[in-house]
Structure formats: structure tokens, C-alpha cells
Amino acid sequence: MPNLWQRVYKLELGGDDVDMLEFGELRQSTKEKPYTPLQIEFEIDQTPNGFVSYAEITLYGVASFTKERIYREYTEAKLSAGYVDNYGPIFKGNIVNVESGRDGANHWVKMYCRSGGVSWEDGYISKSFGPGTPQIEIIRAVAESFGYPVLIEGDYSGLPRAELGKTLDQDSKSAMESLAREFDLVWLMQNDVVVVLGPDAVLPTEE
Predict the structure, then answer these.
(1) Distance CA 89, CA 40 (A)
(2) Which helix (H) or strand (E) holds 5?
(3) What is the C-alpha separation between 149 and 139, in angstroms, rounded?
(4) Which of 13, 99, 109, 24 is nearest to 61 (CA)?
(5) Taking Cα atoms as reference points, which of 193, 181, 108, 114 lies closest to residue 150?
(6) pLDDT-based confidence at 12, cuts 50/70/90?
(7) CA angle at residue 195 from 191 to 147, to 5 degrees?
(8) What integer pLDDT is reported at residue 131 of this predicted model?
(9) At what angle do helices 172-183 and 135-144 cross, to 10 degrees?
(10) For residue range 101-125, what is the model confidence (pLDDT) as tens digits?
(11) What is the DSSP code (8-state) at residue 170?
């Protein structure tokens, strides 16, 4: 059935001081050579209310020594998927746990992943803003304090300035949640990017 629908997948695993492992391939055409899709199952949970993206990625038919390497050496995962001529990245994050097993003669390895890994929860902001500071500057500063790239969507020109200034000295997650409640924002971690959506903005999609 995957051949009929021309589905394509590519999983890239990386980490510190290790060679990248690649499974599957992304193709512009099925005419170049016979194509066998990667034996893979995955579930992606990427919702604004979850703040972080989660993924469970299972590979089938992986050799024992490769499973051992994944367990011991690899900490990062990037998954791209779609169809021939129409695919793109759907998850990028850290591997937080690995499970392996056997279903009859078929060996499998499952990776539990989340974007941002552990470090995003350690974000902290300690900064003062002068009187009249635009709220977008405060929002951006809090988003940047997580230590990841930031994408801000929407029009913030209608938000009131911080007339008396503002001092923040707290963990980044609490600061961002407070701003989200006050100004009707949505924020989340999407593929290792902190995304902030204004009141009328929508979640961007990747081509």
C-alpha cells in the first residue's frame, strides 16, 4: 500500500561526536529506481496547549548492533515524511528514551522524543524593562530566554505599552504563560523553535 500511495520517509539520528544515521529516503520521483519505503510507525503530538512536541518513532527490521548504537549514542531525531514531490520535516527534537523488542521474527526499536528536550524547562529570565516598553519587546525577550530560535506571528501593535516598566525574575515558562493569559497569546515549542501566536495569528505550516 505505501508504494501505491508513493509515501516517502526519512529519519535522521544525531548527537554529540557521532556520525549521522539515516533511514529511508526522500524522492522527487519513483521512476529513478525501485523504491521500498521505510518500515516505520510514528505518532506526533504537536498541539499549542502542549507547549512541547512529542513523538514516538518505531523502526522495524533494524539490526541488533544498530539498535545498540541508537540506545547508547544517539540523542537527536529529525523525521521528514509525506509523498513523492510533497514532503517536509514533521518533527525535530531530542530522544529521551529508547525501547526495543521483537514481534515474531521482526525486531523493532522505539524512540520516545520531544522537542526542546530537557533544557527548555530550565529557561530563566531576569531582566528589567524601562517605562513605555512595547509589549512585543517583552514577549520576544521572554521567548528568547528559552535558548531556542524564536518565531513570532501576528500583529502586536494594539497591545498597551508597559507604562511603568516591568521587571521579570522567574522561570521562562511561567513568564510566558503569564503573558499568554494577559494578552490572549498562544505559545508552543515546535521542532525546537519557540513559536508565539498573537490573538489573530494561526500556527504556521511547513511546506
Answers:
(1) 15
(2) helix 2-5
(3) 14
(4) 109
(5) 193
(6) very high
(7) 75
(8) 97
(9) 150
(10) 887 777 889 999 988 655 566 789 9
(11) E
* Separation between Cα atoms, residue 143 and residue 194, nearest integer Å: 6
* Max avg pLDDT among 12-26, 80-94, 131-145, 178-192: 131-145
Neighbours of 69 (CB within 10 A): 16
HSE at residue 13, side-chain half, CA atoms within 13 A, is 24
Q: What is the pLDDT of residues 74-102, one digit of tens each?
A: 999 999 888 777 778 888 888 989 998 88
What CATH number was assigned to the domain covering residues 119-197? 3.55.50.30
What's the Cα-to-Cα distance from 106 to each of 59, 110, 173, rounded to whole Å? 10, 13, 42
Q: What is the pLDDT of residue 81?
A: 84
Residue matched to cell numbers 518500515: 39
Question: Alpha-carbon Rg of the chain, whole angstroms?
Answer: 21
What are the cell numbers at 141?
Answer: 525577550
Query: pLDDT tens digits, residue range 53-63?
Result: 889 999 988 88
Cβ contact 122:61 at 8 Å: no
Q: Give backbone dihedrals phi and psi of 172, rounded to 5 degrees, phi first.
A: -65, -40
Q: Where in the chain is the domain with CATH 3.55.50.30?
A: 119-197
